[in-house]
Amino acid sequence: MPLYEFVCDECETGFELLVGFSQADQPQTCPTCGGLHTHRKVSTFAMGGGAVRNTAGPVARPASSPFT
Ligand SMILES: [Zn+2]
Q1: How far is the CA of 45 from the centre of ligand 1 (A)?
Q2: Does residue 29 form part of some domain?
Q3: Bridge partner list, 18
Q4: Which residues contact 52 (CB under 8 A, 6 or more apart)?
Q5: Which of 30, 22, 26 shows the shortest CA–CA distance to 2?
Q6: Number of folded domains in the chain?
Q7: Cα of 32 to ligand 1 centre, how many Å?
Q8: What pTM, to 2 d.p., does this model score?
């Protein structure tokens, strides 16, 4: 099972999760705050320092993300 990186939109915490391919594009539960508004850090088109935005609404990138 691949390891994906997710980012919580509520507490902006990044976390890694082993999920199946069928679940990779679905929001996961944030282990920190329990929030359901998370999105996967996509590596296919957003690498290189750009902000990751794939959901509606403003998504602020943490200035000091532990996963970058
Ligand atoms: Zn959270």
Answers
A1: 24
A2: yes
A3: 3
A4: 7, 39, 41, 42, 46, 59, 61
A5: 22
A6: 1
A7: 5
A8: 0.58
Residue with tokens 């996963």: 67
How far apart CA 41 and CA 16 sit, in angstroms, is 10
pLDDT digit string, tens, across residues 1-55: 888 999 999 999 999 999 888 888 888 999 999 999 999 987 654 445 555 556 5
**Secondary structure (3-state) at 23:** helix
Locate 58 and state its tokens.
């403003």
Give the Å distance between the CA of 46 and the centre of ligand 1: 21
Q: Which domain holds residue 9?
A: 3-40
The 10 Å Cβ neighbour count of residue 2 is 9
